[in-house]
Specification:
Number of strands: 0
Helix content: 55-70%
Distance between the termini: 60 Å
Radius of gyration: 21 Å
Largest sheet: none
Order of helices and strands: HHHH
Number of helices: 4
Number of domains: 1
Length: 89
């Protein structure tokens, strides 16, 4: 039954000329752009605190009043920016 509903909806949307399944691509590009902008802002802090673990970086950023960020965000930003833990400042 559910498959019939999905098929009917897809057919009706297609009949109106709407392209289906594209929002994921748009959202992916939007998220990538947001990450790039965030990385640009975080880069100086991440370089300075390269000797710390991601969780310690988060704690230090919160202590400095730089906002709350997930430790996973820090780890992913380091990877994107090529900043390794223990790298020289």
């Amino acid at each position: 039954m559910l498959q019939n509903v999905k098929k009917a909806l897809a057919n009706s949307e297609k009949a109106w000329g709407k392209k289906l399944g594209t929002f994921g691509k748009v959202l992916g590009k939007r998220n990538a752009a947001a990450a790039k902008a965030r990385d640009k802002d975080l880069k100086p802090v991440l370089k300075e605190l390269a000797h710390l673990s991601p969780r310690a970086v988060v704690a230090e950023m919160e202590r400095r009043g730089l906002g709350k960020v997930s430790y996973k965000t820090i780890a992913r930003a380091r990877k994107r920016l090529g900043i390794e833990k223990g790298a020289a400042s």
